[in-house]
Amino acid sequence: MLNKAFGCVVLLGIVAASGLLPISAAQWTVEPPGAKKPVVRSTPRVEPLPEAQWTDAHRQLEEKFARYGPPDNAFKTFLHVPEMVDGVMPYTIYLESDTSLTPRQREILILRAAWLCGNEAVWARHAARAREAGMSNAEMRRIAEGPSAAGWDPFEAALLRMADELYRNSSVTDATFKTVSATYDMPHMMEAVETFNHFTVLSMLYNSFGVQPEKSQPDRLPTGVAYRVTVPRREPPLAKARYEPPAGRGIAVGRTFGMHQTLSRAWSPRQSFINQHSPLMPRHREMLILRMGWNCRSEYEWAQHVGRVGRARERGLDPVKIAEGPKAQGWEPIERTILTAADELFHDTTVSDATWNALVSAFDMKWAMSAVFTSSGYRAISMSLNTYGVQHDEGDERFPVIPGR
């Protein structure tokens, strides 16, 4: 059953149908996240794989990523889908340890992602790392309180505003982008955006799989702090790239990430798992990607996956029905569930028990894990594309216009 938070379309469609707005403004999207604190599991939905069940391939993965530290609950959970470990770990390690951001700035962004998504495991791991970087308990609590809390210097407050805008609007306003980029050059800015976005992905995965904090990491999300995400209204899509990629072969997103080659090499395995190694059928994969792109208002992503990258129509998909969502006529019951999973991940940063159980029953646990990974990963890439202003190629298909009903 659809969560009542997104059981209705946005009122904008009704207003547009009345003639008060151009009809192109009528977009059938899920309410953006951030109106209320996510409610997540306090027990595992996917149990960490016991070491007694590890194969040689599992142990090779442990050795490969040993610099991350001893295998934790998250790592052991991902071992159920070994290819997923290779998909998630390179970017996690890079963003957690190897970027040019200061440890303090990095942890501000990661802890804000954990707070916004309501994830205890990410908070527990990174509260310890923040403390190693010299952050006090009071400062970590202030991260939960947000950018308007007293005591932030202007730049750190801007970092937190950027995180909140990414979470709520899947984009960053010109004012916030200009403030942060006055201090950060392009590589720093990309690292900051990608840090928040990727740890939002991890929080969504952990929430959905029920990954629990380590017993050795006692920190938990602060209590008694109001959950508040206050951001300006989303601005129109950028008509010009903030970072113009060089001309060359390949699509614009690849050339944009390629401007920061070290980051791009670490980012690529996450995309490769989704598009090459996951067990999802192409039709189901593109449903998850397109629905998330629609909800995030990422028209570039939409264009690529309707078009030459995802080739949606070759998969038997009608883009208008994707835009209309799970309640559109003609979907098979399991396809409604797949679209519902994307909507729940966008709005709630997790999938409901009903949706998870339906996916596992129709496919299996590895498939369900891969579906969550796919949709979550494309939430991150949507936020990145919107923020960098990656522009369409000539002839790309834009969002369909959905008249008010």
Description:
With 405 residues, the protein is mainly alpha-helical. It has a domain at 72-251: AhpD-like. Helix content is 56%, strand content 0%. The chain has helices spanning 11-17, 56-64, 73-78, 82-98, 103-117, 120-132, 137-145, 154-169, 174-181, 186-209, 252-257, 261-277, 282-295, 299-306, 319-324, 333-348, 353-362, 365-388. The longest helix is centred in the middle third of the chain and has 24 residues, at 186-209. The radius of gyration is 20 Å and the shape is globular. Residues 1-27 have low confidence and may be disordered.
Features:
mainly alpha
Radius of gyration: 20 Å
Structural class, by secondary structure, is mainly alpha
Low-confidence stretches: 1-27
Distance between the termini: 22 Å
Continuous helix count: 18
Secondary structure: number of strands = 0
Mean pLDDT: 92
CATH superfamily of the domain at 72-251: AhpD-like
Largest sheet: none
**Which shape, going by the Cα principal axes?**
globular
CATH architecture of the domain at 72-251: Up-down Bundle
Q: β content, as a range?
A: under 5%
Pattern of helices and strands: HHHHHHHHHHHHHHHHHH
CATH secondary-structure class of the domain at 72-251 = Mainly Alpha
Q: What share of residues is helical? A: 55-70%
CATH topology (fold) name of the domain at 72-251? AhpD-like
State the gist of this model:
This protein is an all-alpha fold. It has helices at 11-17, 56-64, 73-78, 82-98, 103-117, 120-132, 137-145, 154-169, 174-181, 186-209, 252-257, 261-277, 282-295, 299-306, 319-324, 333-348, 353-362, 365-388. It has 18 helices and no strands.
